[in-house]
Write a structure and sequence with these properties.
This protein is an alpha+beta fold. 29% of the residues lie in helices and 36% in strands. Among the domains are: 92 residues, conserved putative lor/sdh protein from methanococcus maripaludis s2 fold; 70 residues, RNA polymerase II/Efflux pump adaptor protein, barrel-sandwich hybrid domain (OB fold (Dihydrolipoamide Acetyltransferase, E2P), Beta Barrel); 88 residues. The strands form 4 sheets. Strands 3-12-15-14-13-16 form a 6-stranded antiparallel barrel. Helix 2 packs antiparallel against helix 3. It is rod-shaped, with a radius of gyration of 45 Å.
């Protein structure tokens, strides 16, 4: 009887322990799924970015209008046309000016002919004067006759010089007439693309009065040279120097990064926005590929590389907690441990590890997962490279 009593008690205890085990298993927290990433070596950079969107601009942009007013006679270009330097973009009615050029050239031709005639007579007179002097020395002609012939030679020489001066003056008149004619023509000051035309054939245009701006007749840009101007926070501006390497991204071109360098750093702080004072910088493109067809006015962002190190231990910046802590994963017990590290260069993508971690150590990448804390058990949802 006593034996059965102990046996039943033993069975009750086993059942109780089993219930406790079941409850423990049920209530035991499941490992948290996390993404792990290994500490690897690579490039780390300290970068400075713009506070607001920058703007793509052309290195050269000319707003052109004729020097004088008049009626548009020819407009041989259209928007989007690529033109070479000195190409005529617009020409005013100029038949009167062209006629004056023709007249000046013909008058110059006549003046040159008269000069040649006068100088030929002067050469003949010079020779006759030389003979008269020799004859006088031999007593074969009178003093009076010699002086007359020599005087005529001097007069014809003067006539020759006067005719030459008149012919040179006539050449200058051609230059004046051609300059007046050229004022009616608008030429490209450099090779570029026509981006705007204000006017049509037959319309009249006039120069803008002093202090009253008017629309340009033609706007020309140099599409082979572009740069980005962007505002940088005044705190970061002191870290930027001319010729620093940079990366340029444009909203219009997804996933495309252009290499560039700082070409200018502003010399004063802009206080347009009192709470966000900035310094403007210019970043030039290292090269431009025609396939992208960059246009002035595109919005752009820049990353200025102020410092760079190669082959350094690094982790994704998103894995870094406040005060430079990370969750270090231990393979032996599948737990994570909050670990303090020392960091160096950092940007939004990578942070340099100076101490506290070793190469190939694994840390939690997605630190925003609920329930993460020191000593908690996790399971690797994925183990990724930093790239």
């Amino acid at each position: 009887m006593t034996h059965n009593k102990y046996k039943n008690l033993f069975i009750i205890i086993l059942i109780f322990l089993g219930l406790i085990a079941v409850i423990y298993i049920i209530k035991k927290p499941s490992p948290i799924a996390v993404q792990l990433v290994s500490v690897e070596k690579g490039v780390v950079e300290s970068i400075v970015t713009n506070t607001r969107a920058g703007t793509v601009k052309a290195c050269r942009q000319a707003e052109l209008s004729p020097a004088i007013g008049g009626q548009i006679a020819t407009l041989p270009v259209s928007k989007g046309d690529k033109v070479d330097k000195d190409t005529i973009l617009l020409e005013l009615w100029n038949e009167d000016a062209a006629a004056r050029v023709v007249l000046a050239k013909r008058e110059s031709t006549a003046a040159i002919a008269r000069a040649e005639e006068a100088c030929t007579f002067a050469d003949v007179a010079k020779k006759e004067a030389r003979r008269a002097v020799e004859l006088h020395k031999k007593g074969l002609t009178s003093e009076e006759n010699k002086e007359r012939i020599v005087g005529e030679a001097k007069a014809k020489k003067a006539s020759c010089e006067a005719a030459i001066a008149i012919s040179q003056q006539s050449k200058a008149q051609i230059d004046v007439a051609e300059a007046i004619l050229e004022q009616t023509r608008l030429r490209a000051p450099f090779t570029g693309k026509v981006v705007e035309i204000n006017g049509e054939v037959g319309e009249f245009i006039t120069p803008s009065p002093v202090g009253v701006p008017t629309l340009p007749a033609v706007v020309l840009i140099d599409e082979n040279c572009m740069y980005v101007t962007a505002p940088i926070d005044e705190v970061d501006a002191r870290r930027i120097l001319k010729d620093m390497a940079a990366r340029i991204t444009l909203d219009a071109f997804d996933d495309i990064t252009f290499d560039g360098k700082v070409s200018r750093v502003g010399v004063y702080v802009l206080d347009v926005e009192k709470q966000a004072r900035t310094v403007d910088i210019d970043v030039s493109f290292d090269s431009l590929d025609e396939q992208y067809n960059l246009m002035p006015g595109y919005s752009a962002d820049v990353e200025i590389i102020s410092k760079k190190k190669d082959n350094q231990a690094r982790i994704p910046t998103e894995a870094l907690l406040h005060d430079d802590y990370v969750y270090l994963y231990k393979e032996d017990d599948k737990n994570i441990y909050k670990t303090k590290i020392t960091t160096g260069l950092s940007n939004w993508k990578f942070t340099e590890v100076l101490s506290g971690l070793n190469i190939k150590d694994q840390i939690v990448r997605n630190t925003d997962v609920e329930g993460l804390e020191d000593g908690v058990k996790v399971k690797a949802e994925s183990t990724n490279s930093q790239q």
